[in-house]
Automatic annotation (TrEMBL), chain A:
Coiled coil, from the record: none
The keyword Cell division belongs to this UniProt entry's keyword annotation: no
Family annotation (InterPro entries): AP_complex_ssu, AP_mu_sigma_su, APS3, Clathrin_sm-chain_CS, Longin-like_dom_sf
Gene3D superfamilies xrefs: 3.30.450.60
A Pfam family reported for this protein in Swiss-Prot or TrEMBL: Clat_adaptor_s
The protein's name in its UniProt record: AP complex subunit sigma
Major location (coarse): membrane
Function: Part of the AP-3 complex, an adaptor-related complex which is not clathrin-associated. The complex is associated with the Golgi region as well as more peripheral structures. It facilitates the budding of vesicles from the Golgi membrane and may be directly involved in trafficking to lysosomes. In concert with the BLOC-1 complex, AP-3 is required to target cargos into vesicles assembled at cell bodies for delivery into neurites and nerve terminals.
Subcellular location: Cytoplasmic vesicle membrane; Golgi apparatus
Homology family: Belongs to the adaptor complexes small subunit family.
Automatic annotation (TrEMBL), chain B:
Sequence segments annotated as region (Disordered): 634-682, 713-759, 794-846
UniProt protein name: AP-3 complex subunit delta
Ranges for domain AP-3 complex subunit delta: 648-777
Bias (Basic residues) ranges: 729-745, 827-836
Family listed: Belongs to the adaptor complexes large subunit family.
SUPFAM superfamilies: ARM repeat (SSF48371)
Gene3D superfamilies given in the database record: Leucine-rich Repeat Variant, Longin domain
A Gene Ontology term for the protein's cellular component: AP-3 adaptor complex
Length: 174, 1079
């Protein structure tokens, strides 16, 4: 099981947090800080695994992370997950982000946290790996985005229809 | 005008979407908190709007703020509102917010049940998907129970996208509502062979997680997984399957052998494909003998490949089972200690622990010491330090051949910067000094140097932890002061004013041991002709001690003032030229020895006490004295008592010596010293033995300044060579002795440090299931036996509301209806099922209810009930419309009896019927619930009732009436409760139970069928079965115990029964009788 997925930048600012076990908000922030502290002091050319911090469950849990440019992608997992499997999954996730955002950068994550969440939801569900095939993930995300678009289009149409007759009467109402 | 303003403000608020919020926060770096609090105020305004779009936008922003650490639980209700929007866009936002901030104690979750159920059955697969994803994050036991059935249905959805999500979420449902596991399992198993790889992978995933909790249940799936493993190309699935096998092989050894070949093939395949090198590591987890050998080869290759970390991890797994095979890779692992990656170094350290032997201990520790010097960061250094001590002290110093070396290692460790483990080092020093007599001279010299250089240890604040070492140093110097070279100097060092800055407990030891030292010094000085030296020493004590008398620490103060008075008195005597050294020494007389667990034997038997005489009559067989319960004396810690000198007669001594020799000879861990040397040994249960080495004199006893442990490595080599020669001689000698002496004993096993066979050295605790998670969120999940057939009572609760959707189907043509109503009236008796659940105690009852009715459009078909407490019963009735017309305005009414009443809404009369809240199109069934109040459950109940309804077809409608009976049998109040045979016996013995019996003639069925029938139909469980006799147990919902003893001979079955309620028992027996008379 995956216990938590954290994305933060080189300064420890959270860009996405996803806990699959309940922690209160202040605890979540502490965990982010602790994890950042553990991960950030490591060289880029050392291995991608380390034992979890004390807050998130100690050495029963492993932190598996990748560092891309300004962002750290950290997965906290228990012993039932394969370390390299998760490493691979992070890669899949990031490549998916790259496809969905077209050359993803930190700014995309900052301004579209919700979209990143929706993509993540197609990869991991409730702490378990849902899909590892990137094409499948991208396809599902796109269908849902299209649905959203068509809905907002419809709404705009409706709104226009409603507003047009409404505007001449507005004075009377006022 | 006003509207314009309002509209304007709405627009503005609406304009501020998530991006604007983020931008705003980024623009207000200085006063972020203030800016966010104004944003939250705005959001609160937005949430008050009726427009769902505005609300959704607000909730989306809250999700972002939640990430920044703001508590947004106050908006939980609004989140639910957004979740229930019909638009996918908003629904998704709502579910996302819910999954981020809902948890089990969020109370609004209760409100979501129906919404989620609606979304799950939505025609749009993405609505369903979003609901499943959200639910996976905040599922509660209640939600799990209510929705389990819906999710199970989704597992067979036409879209694989939904199927895989439904399969995955089932695991969460199992965790929260373990009862759902058994009914859902067959379908889960089906999904292992789903055509869609995603669904398959999800099913494997779920079963692997389940198997981690209780692998036994899933052994039966091994062949299926075996097939999957050889056929699947999905790496994820492979990883999971191999992990699963890792959990299964300990339970079924044959599996391991079978796995070797496919695994090796797999490795080859993957190695050549080079895609994912990771499989081999997992393979290592399948810890079976032959196979881990072959895996090791690959693991080694991995070092060259990529991931050292995982290689080490895999090795540590193998080490647990096959220490020898890993030990050969020592160099490789030592190299890893040089790795710059801390994770890798820590892993390597873990491995080292299991790899040391007498031969390589010094080498390994030397390497570690080098690392200690180089190490950066206190955590890693502390880790190294504890590891060194762990490695050396493991199994009672089993691998240490030279304790001087060890002491010097300990002393070297005290030079570590800022370690927290001063205490650990101190206790090791004490332990070694006390237990290894021969080392004391050396240890004392070292400790004196330490005391002398105490300022180095206490120098700065950072080194606070290490000053614990002084505690040990002071104590050793005081206790073994006779070995000191220059006691006066040490005494002076111990009484320095700087000592007052040490922690209280250390000062206390200082004071006490200064007194011991003082005694020693006096003794040496009194021998001299010049008495001034002795007086000077006393003066020194008197000068320095007042410092301690003023100490804030009570212990220090007390000891200091006591000793100060003593010294003053001594000084007085000295001035009178009285020799008092002997008397002072007597204060601390007696030698401190490690006390063996069997030390009791050394206490002389008081005269007149004959231990061999029996106080009471002897039991038939007496135990030998050696076998005396060791466990009682198992306390290993050396006791600091001082055995007084004892007088034992020569014979007794000789006898004891002999016994001891024999014990040593049989003790493979005892390191023999030369025959003349004094022997100190300890025996403890099991492998806990302390080897006491007689230090060879080739090692210099005095080492100037602080020692360097390195020299010992060299010396050790020389010593070993010498030893080897010596030993040969010794062995010859011994053999001669043995032959000439008592030839009873055989040559004892390996007896020296040179015979290094890992077999008896590496004491690895093998874990059964190292991978199983420790937190065990829901232990009961493990207790379900999946092999048991599914009982009716375990069916998932089905909710009724959904049938409303089926209503759409229009009424069929009316001709058929009239035909249907003309149908010959069939008298059918149908078995009704009722499910009752006692909420308080969470048990289930199945009520069999016989019902006779003569329906034209047979509506009543099935009864299910829930028991809320000891007296309330919820009966759910399933109405099925078997005719071709539309049924409406159904009214359900039951004639109340004294004992049982149908609960009606307030304000309605006692004879009013209850309206059934739905209509029934042809061929449709639906379920309604009715609450009954029961007074007593000891007698069966039959309730008469009527159902009135209107049959409607195209042109006409008729009023119809249907009579029925609800039959509550006594059996239906019983709950099959497992009972242990001892509890059962106790119950029978208690005497509270009334007896009754019944005989059944002409029963022709195997005994186990008979038992199964009683279990199934009457809710008993078998306590114990012996041949043709079985005891059974059940419990009623009002806590009556019912016990049965069933015996069979030929075609006669006799049942003896006991129950604390005779009426109930009689009825139950009647019902049992009836069951068997029908067959």
């Amino acid at each position: 099981m995956i216990k938590a997925i954290l994305i933060f930048n080189n300064h420890g600012k959270p860009r996405l947090i996803r806990f699959y076990q309940y922690f209160a908000e202040d605890m979540q922030q502490q965990i982010i800080r602790e994890t950042f502290h553990l991960v950030s002091k490591r060289d880029d050319n050392v291995c991608n695994f380390l034992e979890g911090g004390s807050l998130i469950g100690g050495s029963d849990y492993k932190l598996i992370y990748r560092h891309y440019a300004t962002l750290y992608f950290v997965f906290c997992v228990d012993s039932s997950e394969s370390e390299l499997g998760i490493l691979d999954l992070i890669q899949v996730f990031v490549e998916t982000l790259d496809k969905c955002f077209e050359n993803v950068c930190e700014l995309d994550l900052i301004f579209h946290m919700d979209k990143v969440h929706y993509i993540l939801q197609e990869v991991v569900m409730g702490g378990m790996v849902l899909e590892t095939n990137m094409n499948e993930i991208v396809a599902q995300v796109e269908v849902q985005n299209r649905m959203e678009k068509s809905e907002s289009h419809m709404e705009r149409m409706l709104l226009r229809r409603h507003l047009e007759p409404l505007s001449p009467h507005s004075h009377e109402l006022g | 005008m006003a509207l314009k303003i309002v509209k304007g403000s709405i627009d503005r608020m609406f304009d501020k979407n998530l991006q604007d919020l983020v931008r705003g926060i980024r623009n207000h770096k200085e006063d972020e908190a203030k800016y966010i609090s104004t944003c939250i105020d705005e959001i609160k305004q937005e949430l008050k709007q009726d427009n769902i779009a505005v609300k959704a936008n607000a909730v989306c922003k809250l999700t972002y703020l939640q990430m920044l650490g703001y508590d947004v639980s106050w908006a939980a209700f609004n989140i639910v509102e957004v979740m229930s929007s019909s638009k996918f866009t908003y629904k998704r936002i709502g579910y996302l917010a819910a999954s981020q901030c809902f948890h089990e104690s969020t109370d609004v979750i209760m409100l979501t049940t129906n919404q989620i159920r609606k979304d799950l059955s939505s025609p749009n697969q993405y609505d369903t998907g979003v609901a499943l994803t959200g639910l996976s994050c905040f599922v509660t036991p209640d939600l799990a129970r209510d929705l389990a059935n819906d999710i199970m249905t989704l597992m067979s959805h036409t879209k694989p996208y939904i199927r895989k999500k439904a399969v995955l979420i089932m695991y969460k449902v199992f965790l929260k509502y373990p009862e759902s596991l058994r009914p859902a399992f067959p379908r889960l198993k089906e999904k292992l062979e789903d055509p869609d790889p995603g669904v398959q992978s999800a099913a494997v995933n779920v079963i692997c997680e389940l198997a981690r909790r209780n692998p036994k249940n899933y052994l039966s799936l091994a062949p299926l997984f075996f097939k999957l493993m050889t056929s699947s190309t999905n790496n994820w699935v492979l990883i999971k399957i191999i992990k699963l096998f890792g959990a299964l092989t300990p339970l079924e050894p044959r599996l391991g052998k079978k796995l070797i070949e496919p695994l090796t093939n797999l490795i080859h395949r993957i190695m050549s494909a080079d895609r994912s090198v990771y499989i081999p590591f997992l393979v290592a987890r399948v810890r079976t003998k032959g196979e881990s050998m072959s895996v090791l080869k690959y693991v080694k290759a991995m070092f060259v490949f990529v991931v050292k970390y995982l290689g080490l991890l895999a090795m540590s797994k193998i080490l647990k089972t096959h220490p020898k095979s890993v030990q050969s890779h020592k160099d490789l692992i030592l190299q890893c200690l040089d790795d710059k990656d801390e994770s890798i170094r820590l892993r390597a350290l873990d491995l080292l622990y299991g790899m040391v032997s007498k031969k390589n201990l010094m080498e390994i520790v030397k390497k570690l010491m080098l690392h200690v010097d180089k190490a950066e960061g206190t955590t890693y250094r502390d880790e190294l330090l504890t590891k060194i001590i762990d490695i050396c002290s493991q199994s009672n110093y089993q691998y240490i051949t030279n304790f001087e070396w060890y002491i010097s290692i300990l002393v070297e460790l005290t030079r570590l910067e800022g370690t927290r483990h001063g205490h650990l080092i101190a206790s090791q020093m004490l332990d070694v000094a006390i237990r290894v007599k021969a080392i004391r001279v050396f240890a004392v010299a070292q400790m004196a140097t330490l005391l002398d250089n105490a300022h180095l240890l206490t120098g700065n604040v950072q080194r606070k932890g290490i000053c614990e070492v002084l505690y040990a140093a002071a104590w050793i110097c005081g206790e073994f002061s006779e070995h000191l070279d220059n006691p006066t100097q040490t005494l002076e060092a111990m009484l320095r004013p700087k000592v007052a800055t040490l922690p209280g407990h250390i000062q206390a030891v200082y004071v006490q041991n200064a007194a011991k030292l003082f005694a020693t010094v006096l003794k040496s000085q009194e021998g001299n002709t010049d008495s001034t030296a002795a007086q000077e020493t006393s003066q020194l004590m008197i000068d320095r001690l007042p410092l301690f008398v003023q100490s804030a620490n009570l212990e220090v103060q007390e000891r200091a003032s006591c000793i100060l008075q003593l010294v003053k008195y001594i000084q007085k005597l000295q001035q009178k030229d009285v020799e008092i050294a002997e008397e002072v020494i007597a204060l601390f007389a007696g030698e401190l020895n490690p006390v063996a667990p069997k030390a009791q034997k050394k206490v002389p038997v008081p005269e007149g006490l004959d231990l061999d005489a029996w106080i009471n009559e002897p039991p038939s067989e007496s135990e030998s004295e050696d076998e005396q319960p060791r466990a009682i004396f198992a306390k290993e810690e050396p006791k600091h008592s001082r055995p007084r000198h004892t007088e034992v007669d020569e014979k007794e001594l000789a006898k004891r010596r002999e016994a001891r020799k024999q014990e040593q000879a049989n003790n493979p861990f005892y390191i023999k010293s030369s025959p003349s040397s004094q022997k100190v040994y300890q025996e403890a249960p099991g492998v806990e033995h302390i080897p006491v080495v007689q230090i060879d004199l080739s090692v210099p006893l005095k080492v100037p300044g602080l020692p360097m442990s390195d020299q010992y490595v060299k010396l050790e080599e020389e010593r070993r060579q010498k030893d080897r020669a010596d030993k040969k001689k010794k062995e010859k000698k011994k053999r001669k002795e043995k032959r000439s002496g008592r030839g009873k004993r055989h040559d004892s096993g390996p007896e020296s440090e040179e015979d290094i066979t890992p077999a008896h050295m590496v004491d690895i605790v093998t874990e059964e299931m190292p991978e199983s998670s420790k937190q065990g969120q829901n232990v009961c999940l493990c207790h379900f036996r999946l092999s048991r057939p599914l009982a009716d009572s375990e069916k998932l609760p089905v909710r009724s509301h959904r049938a409303a959707e089926v209503l759409k189907s229009p009424a069929q043509d009316g001709d058929a209806e009239s035909a249907a109503s003309q149908e010959p009236k069939k008298k059918s008796s149908k078995e009704k099922r009722e499910k009752k659940k006692d909420k308080d105690r969470d048990r289930k009852v199945r009520v069999t209810c016989l019902q006779h009715y003569s329906p034209p459009p047979s509506p009543v078909n099935d009864i299910q009930g829930n028991l809320q407490d000891g007296s309330q019963v919820v009966v759910s009735v399933i109405f099925e419309n078997k005719c071709d017309s539309f049924l409406k305005s159904m009214e359900f009414n039951v004639l109340d009896s004294l004992n049982s009443k149908l609960q009606r809404p307030e304000g309605s009369g006692p004879h009013d019927g209850l309206t059934v809240p739905f209509q029934l199109p042809p061929g449709v069934s639906n379920e309604a619930r009715f609450v009954f109040t029961m007074q007593s459950i000891i007698t069966p109940q039959k309730l008469k009732g009527t159902l009135t309804f209107i049959v409607k077809n195209e042109d006409s409608s008729t009023h119809e009436k249907l009579d029925f009976k609800l039959h509550f049998t006594c059996t239906s109040y019983l709950i099959s409760t497992p009972c242990y045979s001892d509890a059962f016996a106790k119950l029978l013995e208690s005497g509270d139970l009334k007896c009754s019996s019944v005989k059944l003639e002409g029963v022709v069925m195997p005994f186990h069928h008979l038992l199964a029938r009683i279990c199934f139909r009457h809710h008993f469980s078998v306590v114990e079965r012996i041949d043709s006799c079985a005891s059974m147990y059940s419990r009623s919902i009002q806590d009556h115990h019912v016990c049965l003893l069933v015996k069979t001979s030929g075609q006669t079955v006799s049942i003896d029964a006991k129950c604390d309620e005779p009426t109930l028992l009689g009825n139950v027996l009647d019902e049992i009788k009836q069951t068997f008379s029908q067959c």
